[in-house]
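Below is a filled-in request sheet from our internal design queue. Each sheet records the structural input a requester submitted and the sequence that came back. We keep these sheets so that new team members can see what a complete request looks like end to end.

REQUESTER: design group, bay 2
PRIORITY: normal
MODE: inverse folding
CHAIN LENGTH: 127
BACKBONE (tokenized):
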């Protein structure tokens, strides 16, 4: 599967309607982005069970800002609609392959339990 162009209009549905989504925040002028692009594209062709989406931070500045992107490339991974990885910087192919495997093998019940536990320890929002 080729990469999918993600925009403010479709990113939420892609994340919520697919089991695993990797998102590459990039820009044409960014050298490390151009180096990581072919690695990301190759992975999208090898892992057809995963959605690989790209956000052009120049065209989608509001989306990049709302995602808290301060450095590109930034790679995010979502599993079952939950952000499970976010890191700036281009990854070498073997490291990216390892990350894909880790995201695929996550115990999502444990992840949800950990999130619930963390939320339970937070103070209630003040009115």
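RETURNED SEQUENCE:
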């Amino acid at each position: 599967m080729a990469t999918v162009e993600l925009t403010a209009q479709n990113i939420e549905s892609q994340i919520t309607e697919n089991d695993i989504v990797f998102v590459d925040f990039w820009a044409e002028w960014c050298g490390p982005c151009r180096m990581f692009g072919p690695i990301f594209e190759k992975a999208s062709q090898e892992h057809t069970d995963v959605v690989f989406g790209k956000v052009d931070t120049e065209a989608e500045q509001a989306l990049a800002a709302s995602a808290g992107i301060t450095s590109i490339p930034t790679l995010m991974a979502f599993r079952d609609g939950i952000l499970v990885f976010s890191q700036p910087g281009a990854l070498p192919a073997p490291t990216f392959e390892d990350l894909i495997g880790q995201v695929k093998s996550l115990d999502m019940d444990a992840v949800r339990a950990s999130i619930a536990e963390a939320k339970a320890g937070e103070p209630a929002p003040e009115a």
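SHEET NOTES:
- The chain has one domain: 4-120.
- The two ends are 47 Å apart (CA to CA).
FILED BY: M.R.
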